[in-house]
Amino acid sequence: MLFGFQALNAQVSYTNKAILFYQENQYDKALTYIDSALVNPKEKDEPYTWYVRGMIYKDHFKQKESTMPESNSRVKSIESFKKCIELDAKNEHTSNSKVNIKFLAGSYYNEMVKNLDTVNYEKAEPLYEKYKQTMRLVDPKMDFTKNDKEVYLFLGAQISRKFNFKRENGTQKYFDMAINVFNKVISLDSNDCNAHYQIAQLYYNYGVETILSLEDTTPLEEVIKAQDKCVALFQKSLPHMKKAYQLANCKSKKELVRALMGIYYQLNEMDKYNDLNTQLQLIKE
Amino acid sequence: MQTQPDVNSRVKALYVFNFTNMVEWPSDLKKGTFNIGVLGESNNLFTELSKYNSKSVGSQTIKVNHFAESASVTQCHILYVTKEQSDKTAALVKKFKSKGTLIISEKEGALKEGAIINFVIRNNRQSYELSKTNAVKHKLIIGKQLTELAAKVE
Lengths: 285, 154
Known about the structure:
The complex is a heterodimer.
Chain A: H1 14-23, H2 27-37, H3 47-65, H4 72-87, H5 94-114, H6 121-138, H7 145-160, H8 172-188, H9 193-212, H10 220-247, H11 253-266, H12 270-282
Chain B: H1 7-22, E1 23-24, E2 34-39, H2 44-50, E3 56-57, E4 60-67, E5 78-81, H3 89-95, E6 102-105, E7 117-122, E8 125-130, H4 132-137, E9 141-142, H5 144-148, E10 152-153
Parallel strand pairs in B: 2-4, 2-5, 5-6, 6-7, 8-10
Antiparallel strand pairs in B: 1-9, 3-4, 7-8
Helix pairs in contact in B: 1-2
């Protein structure tokens, strides 16, 4: 972690002065000197100057701003390491810079995970995007597909919990958000069984509650409208559950057959329901 | 075995309760308890209809009764004949003719056997068809809205 002085020039080296204060954990003074180095024509284009700046801001972040989602020190640290790499024609500091960038990217990821709950979920996706942007500085061709799917599946599950099926009352937006997030997974992988299953369940449960939550004395016209809505929801559920059933690698066969039976039952498609029921009896699990 | 929540039974129960306000019974039947009978296996529909026990139809209080077999069926304002007992429809129509019983069935062609309202499935939805002719035979007057919302009227 520590670095030695570099003979940047025979005269004042703001970078070296910054290192001195940094080693004594006097971050504010260290930062003052390193920022002065950036306007010193002899230092501003040195990769080592930017490397030192990256290190100071990184430790400032760790010591003072690690609980701040919008930490300015973290941003400046990443920028500094990035600049170091750009200037590092001799490849003396690039490897270490990348290690540090990965560390900082990891901090975004860890924060994202902490925010994947029903209260803070809206902070999770932007943090994940920052993680990916930062990791791309290290490896521009990095494939995040597998990670994306896991994150979006978990995020979708958290958002789903916010939707109150029984009393929509302003919670409809969570239903739509959850569907959108699961659809992101499908756009990455059209054969993701989990995503299809989750979408199917969301539509199905919403359809069921649309009817079950009606008051006992609901007028007939309103019952008919609710039924229309309910059928439309079951019909949206069906293709996703059929896909999950075909893929059959996210739940047991029995669970998938029962889930599909449920949709056909609610849609009054009793022939298909009965066919699946026959199949269910033959499944040995 | 059906372990899913039974949306269809809930819908049918909602329909049946609405029928109590959309059909005119003879004046001599507008006093005492308002009886709804379910003939057939005690099932989800009976459970859903039982939620209406003690609710009101005009000045009358609803009582929901279950009949396991047709021989035990007594006078009702509404008699729901479940699918498995649908072969008894014609006999029940004859037994309760002119007695103000709204006979509801759930079998294709039941109107021809004398039922007044028959639950049918149309476009995945629970709906109903009704026979005004049969209603008249049972001294019942079908309200305008009930006619307008029917899938088919005979």
